[in-house]
């Protein structure tokens, strides 16, 4: 029976119990969200003693299934005030699964002002004082210190200086196979971990066996079909490995949905300078790597190694959303400057989407000039110093907008709106408005055409069909987020029906179940309802499912506006 | 009278442009209206290499696209990540 671990940071008591019945059939986002809905007081202060932080690997994590190494982290978000699930690559999740740990829950708050390292091994869990050297240290260096102390192969989940300061844009970073950084970025979960005085969680799977598979032959056959879907599809087999997600810059710019200058326009003239094609050429010229996996077993490998001009490693996991937010939305036409910013986000431990959008809002406020790369980097570096301005920047776009009395602040439920203009890509706008997570493009990401009948033509500029599309995307995504699969598998299963069937069959073979596609859809709905129920009890109403009113302005080049009525928006969650 | 189209190419098609020593964006002269397929044939590009044919920011399949002088046109091959192919209307394009 799988282990369920509770770590009480107030008393330092650790309870390792059999997974309670109610969570036994859950994993990933299904487990974290239903756990938070069951056990966290919805009205609690997210940084107070009643909030709980939970880590859970997905259904297939730790198996040989391709791309199955994601870890879900859940809690009440200090950024949105609602429920949060944020997931990450890295080595942590696979080790948890191999050790047969269903979830680790961190509860309570120590009275003393000290940071701790929680160490998880096959022998149990210990709580040790964090090495003084890593307090205030950047994540890259701190991971090295921890792996020198606890073993070079241990998994590490860590908060950077931003998490120590409990800033609401703080993330939780996880070491990847090369000891670089992947993050559970959104929603300020690093602040929750920091509030519990946990500097890092170290996991050592020495002595753990392989993940048990109930029907190994069936698993192997389904896994082969699944891999085949990923490798033969042009997106997961060619597009992403070569260009990463940044391929979207030119595409969104062409479609008129690339928000520019704090969402004033959907197109700009310099997009190609920061786009995926230019990035891939730069990486090749500097002997970096255009393709890299954020965890063992990733065969899509959308990540990369971006080197500086001297061919030295600068950053990886350099994603479209960060490049958009600084490059287009803040008008910084300089890929290298954006790469330095991305590295600083990882090192100080903040959500690169939240803080990049905040930089645009800082330009709106006149704190720094539009497009000024040097001023942008200096502003971001204020976070590490803990100056009043740095703390505001590290608290996100909503906080900065409030401090400066702005109305042009692109947030929903206080979380920054990402890289797709909701006026020109209306389906994603409905997802920003209604997802229980606060504005989040990945909340409506997974497409399972065969199951959900998504995929018919929708005009991105029109309203027809968008409510159903957003609803179905959110349901499918909630289910995929529970498998431990990277969401990018959705790119292939959109077109290859057998890929989706193989995914369900792998889950069945792993646990000896007989789930159907309908069960997976039902799971997605259950998760969304639990999340929305939590938010309602925390005080959220339909009135919170709205975009900022500046989206009523026309967006060039298509001159479209955000024109959904409240009643239309409220239909998304009518299921 | 020929008129000009401003043409862009993305992903692998950008490599094709580079290999042919074409600018990107490239200016292409056209006379009157052309279908997307005629336009690609004129450029010696296979319609199979093009999933998305943007005309003035709207997505079409090559057989349904119509171009004329003054248009802004862009070509993308297969490979645009899935949700966007739905959200941007590339799946079953009108
Ligand atoms: S496709 Fe990208 S995000 Fe997904 S697991 Fe691989 S490297 Fe990580």
UniProtKB/TrEMBL annotation, chain A:
Domain Aldehyde ferredoxin oxidoreductase N-terminal: 1-207
Cofactor: tungstopterin; [4Fe-4S] cluster
Alphabetical list of InterPro entries matching this protein: Ald_Fedxn_OxRdtase_dom2, Ald_Fedxn_OxRdtase_dom3, Ald_Fedxn_OxRdtase_N, Ald_Fedxn_OxRdtase_N_sf, OxRdtase_Ald_Fedxn_C, Tungsten_al_ferr_oxy-like_C, W-dependent_AOR
Keywords: 4Fe-4S, Iron, Iron-sulfur, Metal-binding, Oxidoreductase
Pfam families assigned: AFOR_C (PF01314), AFOR_N (PF02730)
SUPFAM superfamilies named in the record: Aldehyde ferredoxin oxidoreductase, C-terminal domains, Aldehyde ferredoxin oxidoreductase, N-terminal domain
GO molecular function, one term: electron transfer activity
First and last residue of the signal peptide: none
Entry's family note: Belongs to the AOR/FOR family.
The protein, known as: Aldehyde ferredoxin oxidoreductase
Automatic annotation (TrEMBL), chain B:
Name of the protein in its database record: MoaD/ThiS family protein
Source taxon at top rank: Bacteria
């Amino acid at each position: 029976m799988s282990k369920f671990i509770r770590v009480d940071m107030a008393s330092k008591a650790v309870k390792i119990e059999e997974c309670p019945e109610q969570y036994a059939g859950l994993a990933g986002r299904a487990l974290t969200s239903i756990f938070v809905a069951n056990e966290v007081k919805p009205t609690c202060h997210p940084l107070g003693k009643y909030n709980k932080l939970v880590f859970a690997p997905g259904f297939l994590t730790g198996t040989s299934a391709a791309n199955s190494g994601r870890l879900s982290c859940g809690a009440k978000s200090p950024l949105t005030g609602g429920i949060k699930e944020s997931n990450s690559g890295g080595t942590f999740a696979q080790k948890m699964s191999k050790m047969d740990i269903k979830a680790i829950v961190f509860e309570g708050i120590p009275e003393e002002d000290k940071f701790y390292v929680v160490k998880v091994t096959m022998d149990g869990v210990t709580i040790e004082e964090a090495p003084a050297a890593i307090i205030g240290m950047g994540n890259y260096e701190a991971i090295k210190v921890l792996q020198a102390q606890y073993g070079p192969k241990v998994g590490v989940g860590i908060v950077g200086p931003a998490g120590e300061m409990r800033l609401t844009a703080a993330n939780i970073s996880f070491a990847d196979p090369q000891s670089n950084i992947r993050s559970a970025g959104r929603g300020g979960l690093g602040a929750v971990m920091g509030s519990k005085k946990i500097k890092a969680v170290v996991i050592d799977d020495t002595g753990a066996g392989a993940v048990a598979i109930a029907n190994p032959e069936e698993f192997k056959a389904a896994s082969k079909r699944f891999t085949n879907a990923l490798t033969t599809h042009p997106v997961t087999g060619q597009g992403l490995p070569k260009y990463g997600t940044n391929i979207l810059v030119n595409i969104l710019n062409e479609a008129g949905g690339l928000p520019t200058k704090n969402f004033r326009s959907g197109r700009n003239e310099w997009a190609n300078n920061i786009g995926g094609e230019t990035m891939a050429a730069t990486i090749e010229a500097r002997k970096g790597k255009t393709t890299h996996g954020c965890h063992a077993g990733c065969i899509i490998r959308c990540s990369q190694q971006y080197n500086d001009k001297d061919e030295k490693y600068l950053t990886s996991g350099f994603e479209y959303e960060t490049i958009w937010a600084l490059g287009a939305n803040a008008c910084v036409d300089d890929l290298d400057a954006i790469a330095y910013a991305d590295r600083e986000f990882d090192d100080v431990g903040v959500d690169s989407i939240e803080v990049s959008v905040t930089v645009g809002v800082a330009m709106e406020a006149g704190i720094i000039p539009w497009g000024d790369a040097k001023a942008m980097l200096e502003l971001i570096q204020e976070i590490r110093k803990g100056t009043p301005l740095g703390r505001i920047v590290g608290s996100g776009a909503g906080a900065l907008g409030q401090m400066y009395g702005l109305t042009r602040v692109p947030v929903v439920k206080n979380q920054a709106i990402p890289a797709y203009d909701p006026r020109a890509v209306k389906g994603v706008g409905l997802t920003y408005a209604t997802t229980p997570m606060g504005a989040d493009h990945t909340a409506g990401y997974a497409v399972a055409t065969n199951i959900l009948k998504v995929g018919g033509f929708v005009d991105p500029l029109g309203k027809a069909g968008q409510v159903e599309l957003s609803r179905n995307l959110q349901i499918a995504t909630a289910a995929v987020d529970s498998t431990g699969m990277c969401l990018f598998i959705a790119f292939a299963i959109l077109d290859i029906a057998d890929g989706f069937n193989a995914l369900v069959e792998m889950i069945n073979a792993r646990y000896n179940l007989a789930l159907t596609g309908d069960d997976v859809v039902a799971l997605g709905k259950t998760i969304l309802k639990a999340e929305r129920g939590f938010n309602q009890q925390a005080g959220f109403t339909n009135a919170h499912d709205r975009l900022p009113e500046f989206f009523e302005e026309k967006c060039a080049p298509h001159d479209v506006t955000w024109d959904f009525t409240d009643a239309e928006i409220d239909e998304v969650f009518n299921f | 009278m020929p008129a000009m189209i401003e043409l862009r190419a993305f992903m692998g098609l950008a490599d094709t442009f580079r290999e042919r020593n074409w600018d990107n964006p490239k200016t292409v002269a056209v006379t009157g209206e052309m279908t997307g397929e005629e336009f690609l044939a004129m450029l010696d590009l296979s319609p199979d290499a093009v999933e998305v044919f943007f005309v003035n920011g709207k997505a079409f399949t090559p057989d349904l696209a119509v171009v004329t002088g003054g248009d802004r046109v862009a070509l993308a091959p297969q490979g645009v990540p899935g949700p966007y192919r739905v959200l941007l209307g590339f799946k079953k394009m009108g």
